[in-house]
Structure formats: structure tokens, C-alpha cells
Amino acid sequence: MKNITAFHSVLICFLLLNILPETGSSAKIPSSKRSKDVIARQTPILLKETNAKGLTLGQAVCIRIFKEEKELELWIKKGSKFSMFKSYPICTFSGELGSKKKVGDGQAPEGFYTVYPEQLNPSSDYHLAFNIGYPNAYDRAHHFTGSAIMVHGNCVSIGCYAMTDARIEEIFTVITKAFEGGQSSFQVQIYPFRMTSEKWKLMPVWNGTASGKTLKPVTIILKQINCHRLLL
Questions:
Q1: Which of 196, 148, 216, 176 is nearest to 57 (CA)?
Q2: CB 3.0-4.6 Å disulfide test: which of 9, 16, 127, 142 passes with 153?
Q3: DSSP string of 108-147?
Q4: Cα dihedral angle (148, 32, 115, 128), rounded to 10 degrees?
Q5: What does the pLDDT look like over 168-188, one tens digit per residue?
């Protein structure tokens, strides 16, 4: 275990400490005429879609992003676990696989981030958006720099995740309803790729570790505490 990279150590600690969503929000939720119009239009549609899947609009949410697959998953809490509501294609993001390290590198971040109501941007130049919260504690500890990294509409990006206007309208509405329902923050988990057994073999190269064998204990731990334990 002593050869495990800092990335894996942070991954384990974060998942152990941050699996459950925070509830009991009292923060003001930012809004604009644009966002109010969108939410009024999208809510009846999303109510039907969530009900059809046995989910409740307004329950807690979490988001997972997979860069290589260009997918954003939106999960909604159902009982004691989460169930995936939808998987959205990411229209575009800039950079390659790997962390964002400095301002201007054009990289879209990877890591584990927390979004609070005040990070919603209902008046974005890219229709609607939310700030993922980069840099997080890990990023700051490694002196990574940058700010205002968003998931937003449109299909252009310099370090952000662009979803198109139609997709961000749905995502923004579901997030807003979760905050209105009492969730005080939600997780955005950004992975370089889906952590399959085959992909794990690539992790030594990606992180510069000497041997895939050093990752085996971490893989076992992740299978035990991974957020999948709360995902249906």
C-alpha cells in the first residue's frame, strides 16, 4: 500500500467521507427569468419521466462524468440509494485525459467536487450553468490553479463541460428541484474513464506508478466503498 499514488489515497478518503448527500439546505437558490422559464417548461416533462422510472423529482442528486466516453450521468436518490435517471452525451470538453493543473492549460478537470446552490449560474453566457467547484482541496494541495470551471449549455468549451442548451435545461432543472427539496450540496465525480478491470490496468501508466500490482489493494477497497454502493 505504501506505493499507492496520492490520487488513489484522496479517492479513497473522499469516497469514505463524502458518499452521502448533504441535506437541509437553507441557502438562496440563484434564479433568473431565463431559468424560471426553463424550469416552468421542463418540470411537467421531467415529472412524467421521473415518475415513469419510479423516481421523485426533488430528491437528492449526484452526477458522474466520464471523459473518455463523453458521458454525464444524472442520478436521483431512491430510498437509501441512488438510481440513474439519465445518461447525457457531453457535446464537447477541451484538453485530454488527466487533471487540470494551471490556468490556461485548456484542460477539463478530473476529481471529486461539491456543488452548493450559490454555484448555479442562471444567467450564463452559455445558457445555464453550474460551477463544479474547481479547485478542490486536492487540487489546491498540488498547487493547481484555475477557476470558474462549469458544466454549461452550448457546444463550445475551454476547460468546461458543454452539454448543449437542451441537455443543460434538464440537468439544471433537476438540480434546482433537488436544492428546493432540501439538498444542501451534491457531488460531481469526474473520471478519466469508466473504472473497469481493463481500464485499471492502464492506471499505472496514467499516474506514473511502477507496477499494476501496486493498484490491486486499492481496487479491492474501491469495490467495497465505491459510490456504487449507493447507486442502484
A1: 176
A2: 127
A3: PP-EEEEE-GGGEETT-TTSSEEE---S-HHHHHTT----
A4: -60
A5: 999 999 999 999 999 999 999
